[in-house]
Amino acid sequence: MAQAARWMRLRVAQADESSAASARFAASLAATADPLLLWLRAAGACAFALIAPVRLAPGRAWRWLAWGAMPAIATCRQYGLPAYLEGEAIWLHGRRAAGLSVARIGQCAVIEGAFPAPIAAEPGLEAAFRERVEAQHGWRFDTAWPEGGEARR
User: Fold this and answer.
1) How far is CA 48 from CA 15, 32, 71, 124, in A?
2) Distance between CA atoms of 137 and 69, rounded to whole angstroms?
């Protein structure tokens, strides 16, 4: 049976606001909560924050980045980009194309990333990424809105 998960769309004024938004959501999630993926849009940019209770993440924290980033890399490849993970970034043709980060916030593993500019505005990117995350992690998303103690900012 698939793990229930929430998919939430947020618009942010500037791309640098996405980390603050994901930190607020991660801090409010309980250890027993369903995972949450924030789909973040800012002017011309597209980012995500995968927020999962630690119980659902790989046992070793050093594996979290690859675990959370691989669906984004698979999505890039689906759009014809030869993307790969190196360090804390998505790389294309030997150059850093988009940053990634990983942190533990409260009881959650938080993996943040952005999509490279060549596909950030592609129609269907959100649906393709959603499918890749569901396939990689065995989750079944339901579109969600902030609830309870989750900030709406």
Assistant:
1) 11, 22, 11, 15
2) 11
CATH code assigned to 3-143: 3.30.930.10
Asked whether 38 and 12 are in contact (CB, 8 A), the reply is no
Domain boundaries, the chain: 3-143
Per-residue pLDDT of 118-146, as tens digits, reads 898 888 999 999 999 999 999 999 987 77
Helix (H) or strand (E) holding 24: helix 18-28
With contact defined as beta carbons under 8 Å apart, do 142 and 102 qualify?
Answer: no
pLDDT tens by residue, 31-69: 999 999 999 988 778 999 999 999 999 999 999 999 999
